[in-house]
């Protein structure tokens, strides 16, 4: 199996995240990938996928993923049925971090219990 075939899920994820200026080369059994993710969260998704496939320190892939916007962790579009607590779990692993999301969006949110589908929320850096 080639390194490119082994890490195809990483390449597919990059495409679905619309990684900019991305490219892939395979040299001497090592896959070299690079590009620019929109946010640190998206960069972390790429690295999590690499580690899930290749382990904590994979030797058959070299990735140089830059981030276009480091001012926020991510920008999240609210889906029906979501709460700030559920969104906090998705990005931070803790529902209690909902307060950080609420504070970062106090310009559009007046009550942490009231969010609406299609609102774009800033997910602040931890």
- Main-sheet strand order equals 1-2-3
Give helix and strand order, one letter per element, not per position.
Answer: HHEEHEEHHE
Overall form: elongated
Helix content: 25-40%
Beta-strand content: 15-25%
Number of domains: 2
Summed up, the helix count is 5
- CATH architecture classification of the largest domain: 2-Layer Sandwich
In short:
The protein is built from five helices and five strands. The protein has helices at residues 3-6, 8-16, 40-54, 84-92, 98-104, and strands at residues 20-27, 30-37, 61-67, 74-77, 120-123. Strands 1-2-3 form a three-stranded mixed β-sheet, covered by helices on one side.
In words, what does this structure look like?
By secondary structure, the chain is of the alpha+beta class. The protein has two domains: 3-67, 2-Layer Sandwich (Histidine-containing Protein, Chain: A); 74-123, LysM domain (Membrane-bound Lytic Murein Transglycosylase D, Chain A), CATH 3.10.350.10. The chain is 35% helix and 25% strand. The chain has five helices and five strands. The strands form two sheets. It has a three-stranded mixed β-sheet with strand order 1-2-3, with helices on one face. Strand 2 (30-37), helix 3 (40-54) and strand 3 form a beta-alpha-beta unit. Helix 2 (8-16) packs antiparallel against helix 3 and helix 4 (84-92) crosses helix 5 (98-104). The longest helix has 15 residues, at 40-54. It is elongated, with a radius of gyration of 17 Å. The N and C termini lie far apart (38 Å). The model has no long low-confidence stretch (mean pLDDT 96).
């Amino acid at each position: 199996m080639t390194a490119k075939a082994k890490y195809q899920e990483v390449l597919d994820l990059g495409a679905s995240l619309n990684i900019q200026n991305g490219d892939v080369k395979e040299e001497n059994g090592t896959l070299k990938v690079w590009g620019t993710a929109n946010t640190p969260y998206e960069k972390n998704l790429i690295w999590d996928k690499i580690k899930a496939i290749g382990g904590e320190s994979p030797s058959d892939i070299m990735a140089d993923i830059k981030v276009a916007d480091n001012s926020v962790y991510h920008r999240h579009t609210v889906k029906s049925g979501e709460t700030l607590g559920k969104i906090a779990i998705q990005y931070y692993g803790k529902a209690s971090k909902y307060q950080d999301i609420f504070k970062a969006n106090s310009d559009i949110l007046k009550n942490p219990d009231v969010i609406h589908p299609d609102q774009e929320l800033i997910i602040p850096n931890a």
